[in-house]
Amino acid sequence: MDLSLLGLTDYEEKAYRTSIRLGKVSASEISRESGVSYGKIYEVLARLEAKGLIQVVPEQTKKFIATNPSNLIKLIEKKEEEFALMKEEAQKLKQEYNYHEEEPVQIARGKRNFSKIIQELSGEPREFTYSLKWAVDLKPNYIKRVKEDLKLKIPVKTLTTIREDNKDNIKQWLKIDPSFREIENDGVVLDVNNNYVLIVLINQNIILTVKDKAFIKLMKTFFENTYDKCSKITIEDLK
Fold first, then answer.
1. CB atoms within 10 A of CB 28
2. Among 3, 34, 151, 218, which is disulfide-ready with 14 (CB 3.0 to 4.6 Å)?
3. 83: Cβ–Cβ under 8 A, 6 or more apart, which residues?
4. pLDDT tens digits for 177-220?
């Protein structure tokens, strides 16, 4: 057991363990057996007494005796209380940090960063999910997310362009998400929900994430207005 975790110095731990082993002894004996110099032993024993781990025995020659090691449990419990309070304070600081310091706009490049960003954002609760798709991927995590949203009756709206290279994937998606509508798109991915707006410029290989409530609200309105004007995609359109 590392007693430094309870606030004991190396000298204090050596003196305490020695006093437990020897019983009622003088300071000089504790010094000799523990390796703590005689010039420091009284200071060390005084600190142990203040911690409730050593008692002074008032005899002709002053002796010292270790208290019951159950007192260590009291120190442990005190530390647990301190750590619990520290944890609460850390949580408050974390919330304050997130509120003040998180950048509302982040820019990245590359497919690897796109997957990483999607993974980081996917755990946030959604009130609606609006998507402008390009590749129309059938990745399991995308499918799972949409299925969860539909099960929870979260509004899902999807726009995409029909191309020869994505027709089969759109057919598969329609079995899961019948909300697909058609729009002309030359290389933009858009994901809008109550937490963020994600914009991917395919041709520029740029990913832009915006966490700004005013921008999210505006993009939600733009998306809904555009979606309402677009034609629903059916299986017949994909033949």
1. 11
2. 34
3. none
4. 999 999 999 999 999 999 999 999 999 989 999 999 999 999 99
Q: Kindly report the three-state secondary structure assignment for every residue of 67-119.
A: CCCHHHHHHHHHHHHHHHHHHHHHHHHHHHHHHHHCCCEEEEECHHHHHHHHH
The amino acid present at 237, given as its one-letter code, is: D
Assess if residue 97 is contained within a domain: no
* Interatomic CA distance for residues 100 and 151, integer angstroms: 34
- Partner residues linked to 63 by β-bridges: 26, 57
Q: What is the distance between the alpha carbons of residues 27 and 24, in angstroms, rounded to a whole number? A: 10
Return d(Cα 228, Cα 181) in angstroms, integer. 9
Element (H, E) at 232: strand 231-232
Report the alpha-carbon distance of residue 39 to residue 41 in Å, rounded: 6
In the predicted model, what is the mean pLDDT of residues 138-156? 89
Token readout for 218 is: 């505006």
DSSP designation for 23: -
Residues 117 and 207 both lie in one domain: yes
Q: Write out the two tokens for 144.
A: 């799972």
Sign of CA dihedral 222, 225, 227, 230: negative
